[in-house]
Write a structure and sequence with these properties.
Helix content is 63%, strand content 10%. The chain is an alpha/beta fold. Among the domains are: 289 residues, ABC transporter transmembrane region fold; 79 residues, Rossmann fold (3-Layer(aba) Sandwich). The strands form 2 sheets. Strands 6-7-8-3-9-10 form a 6-stranded mixed beta sheet, sandwiched between helices. It has a 4-stranded antiparallel beta sheet with strand order 2-1-4-5, with helices on one face. The mean pLDDT is 78.
């Protein structure tokens, strides 16, 4: 129930609906019992069991409520029977109909109000999950399956709706229905009611034995769903490679293995759950059988109970089976919902290690430069950067080159604070970036990556990602700087053309130029280019390189380069090897040193 209580905090904004639901449920339970009790006077008239009472009974207090109601009924029937006995019967039938009508009206109102509560909780839970998902650092997702995260936001949240939130309907209604019915039953016959108190704990114990492993089984189902969603996400992302290497059978085999496990777990789980209904119903009918035998003795042999009271009692006894079964099924819902809520709350309660300090400042300008002072960083066990120092003065372009794994992209990740350094400091204008809010820090920077990350939206919406208020003229101007305007004009709807999932309707060069246009429109003082031309053909590279040079004018730039021909005009080129600087200087200075950089240039020239 711990997770249930944590999920219930999302219900606070909708407590008005909760209160209305509780009120409606109280009346539902009240009229549900009265509907059964109202059968008694009708049966009394039918069986002609009413005693003649000429004097109207007097109310003497709650202690004699049963006798007062019984005498008043007989008084009413006596008065009506004097005129026409059928009038009394019509009145009793109408009384029964009104009770059942009111019961169903309040039942509907209870469901009406709970709908707003359930859907409101679901909306807020999804929104908070999504906000948490995008706020967590990139490092979190390097260790997690994307499909598992998707499963938690979709199927686990739905499981909470089906199991946890459906219990909200039962919390008030079913216990009150039980309570009112038992009060009425005790007032009719305490002896018979004793059997009910024996039945409820026995059936509850038997049903709890059935559901002990339900949470564990439910957890397996939800985890396996995350596995096959991950396989599906990987398949869609790498479909070209899968087809190109004819690896369809391998991925199909992995997917089938996962769905087979899901099939096994999914069969075990509902079969255990479905056992609750027949088990509780059989136990209920068993006790009804005992009540029929014992009550029959009281009516026919001992004559201590009136027949019409006994029939009413049996109706009440059968009525408590429905809430008893609902409560037993709710216990299964708690177990299943617990597993889903645990997985959802794991995301919500994940600690975000990259957060703003309470004293973090909003930085809106860039004045002098960027400094990396004695920084060391590791993703897992081994250090990628060790005692690294670098200075990037304002207005200059610094290029980082080196073999794969030398730490070039890591520097970009640290400057943008996608990761925090283990040791040392990164400063902008002399202020540690950990003392600057993440939002204002990243607003100072434009990012163009090797993989052009675009979204399933129009060209204009993709370009204006960093500046939503941009008008069409500003978007066009940015596209022209990025050498993208010409090809955009040739698209079916120009700037309003949808570019498809990940921009797959465009070529690699076109996608990269849109990424550059996006960075140009944002107009940040600092540009970070992470191998922005490495995946392009010669013609696209020329267009993109021209766009990059236009974009970098009068800006401070950190360029991570694979193709060395693209960074010859950089103010400073830094050569990295295993996380350390081995050479630095201008293009000509490094060539004169006849070292690592010259070898890299010669290797690319030969290539």
């Amino acid at each position: 129930m711990t997770y249930f209580r944590k999920i219930l905090r999302f219900a606070r904004p909708y407590r008005g609906y909760a209160i209305l639901n509780i009120i409606a449920n109280i009346f539902y339970a009240f009229f549900s019992t009265l509907a059964m009790v109202s059968l008694f006077p009708m049966l009394a008239v039918l069986f002609n069991q009413t005693e003649t009472v000429e004097t109207e009974p007097v109310w003497t207090g709650l202690g004699d409520v049963k006798e007062f109601l019984y005498d008043y009924l007989n008084y009413f029937v006596t008065q009506r029977a004097g005129e026409d006995s059928s009038d009394a019967l019509i009145f009793m039938v109408l009384l029964v109909l009104i009770m059942f009508f009111l019961k169903n009206v309040f039942g509907y109102l209870a469901m009406y109000f709970i709908t707003f509560l359930r859907n409101g909780v679901l909306k807020d839970l999804r929104n908070e999950l999504y906000d948490k998902t995008i706020s967590l650092p990139i490092s979190h997702y390097s260790e997690k399956r994307k499909g598992d995260t998707i499963a938690r936001l979709t199927s686990d949240v739905l499981e909470i709706q089906h199991s946890f939130l459906s219990i909200l309907e039962l919390i008030v209604r079913e216990p009150l229905t039980l309570l009112f019915a038992i009060v009425a039953m005790v007032s009719i016959s305490p002896k018979l009611t004793l059997f009910v108190f024996i039945f409820l704990p026995v059936s509850g114990f038997i049903i709890s034995l059935i559901g002990k492993s339900l949470k564990r089984k439910s957890d397996k189902v939800q985890k396996e769903q995350g596995v096959f969603l991950s396989i599906l996400e990987e398949t869609l992302g790498g479909l070209k490679i899968i087809k190109g290497f004819t690896a369809e059978n391998r991925f199909s085999g992995k997917f089938r293995e996962s769905t087979s496990r899901f099939f096994r777990y999914s069969n075990t789980l509902p079969n255990r759950q479905n056992l609750a209904t027949p088990a509780s119903e059989f136990l209920g009918i068993a006790v009804i059988g005992i009540l029929l035998w014992y009550g029959g003795q009281m009516v026919l042999v001992d004559k201590t109970l009136e027949p019409e009271l006994f029939i009413t009692y049996m109706g009440l006894a059968y009525q408590i089976l429905t809430p008893a079964k609902a409560i037993s099924k709710a216990s299964y819902g708690v177990k299943k919902g617990n597993a889903a809520a645990e997985r959802v709350l794991q995301i919500l309660e994940t600690e975000n290690r990259i957060i703003d300090k309470p004293s973090a400042i909003e930085k809106s300008s860039f004045e002098t430069g960027i400094k990396l002072e004695n920084i060391s960083f590791k993703y897992e066990d081994d250090y990628v950067l060790k005692n690294f120092n670098l200075s990037v003065p304002k207005g200059e372009t610094v290029a980082l080159v080196g073999q794969s794994g030398s730490g070039k992209s890591t520097i970009a990740n640290l400057v943008t604070r996608f990761y925090d350094v283990n040791q040392g400091e990164i400063k902008i204008d002399g202020t540690d970036i950990r003392d600057i809010t993440k939002k204002s820090l990243r607003q100072l920077m434009g990012l163009v990556t090797q993989d052009s990350i675009l979204f399933n939206d129009t060209v204009a919406k993709n370009i204006s990602l960093g500046k939503e208020s941009a008008n069409r003229d500003e978007i066009v101007a940015a596209a022209k700087i990025a050498n993208a305007h010409e090809f955009i004009e040739g698209l079916p709807k120009g700037y309003d053309t949808n570019i498809g999932d990940s921009g797959n309707k465009l070529s690699g060069g076109q996608k990269q130029r849109l990424s550059i246009a996006r960075a140009v429109l944002k107009n940040p003082p600092i540009m970070i280019l992470d191998e922005a031309t490495s995946a392009l053909d010669t013609e696209s590279e020329r267009l993109v390189q021209d766009a990059l040079e236009k974009m970098m004018r009068n800006r401070t730039s950190i360029v991570i380069a694979h193709r060395l021909s693209t960074i010859q005009n950089a103010n400073k080129i830094v050569v990295l090897q295993k996380g350390e600087i081995v050479e630095q200087g201008s293009h000509l200075e490094l060539l004169c040193q006849n070292g690592v950089y010259k070898k890299l240039v010669e290797m690319q020239s030969l290539g």
